[in-house]
Amino acid sequence: MEAILVINPGSTSTKTAIFADHKLVAEETLRHSVEEIAQFDGVISQTEFRYKIILSFVEKLEMTDKLVAVVGRGGLLKPIPGGTYAVGEEMLHDLETEKYNTHASNLGGILANEFAKSLNIPAFIVDPVVVDEMKPLARISGLKGIDRRSVGHALNQKAVSRKATEELGKTYETSSVIVAHLGGGISVGAHQNGKMVDVINGLDGEGPYTPERSGSLPLIDFANLIITENLELGDVKKIIAGNAGLKSYLGETDLREVIKRIDQGEEDAKYYLDGMCYQVAKSIGELAVVLEGKVDAICLTGGAIYSDYILGQISQYVEWIAPVKAYPGEMEMEALYEGAARVLAGEEKALDYGSVEIVK
Ligand SMILES: Nc1ncnc2c1ncn2[C@@H]1O[C@H](COP(=O)(O)OP(=O)(O)O)[C@@H](O)[C@H]1O
Ligand SMILES: CCCC(=O)OP(=O)(O)O
Question: In the record, which residues are listed under signal peptide (predicted)?
Answer without folding.
Answer: none
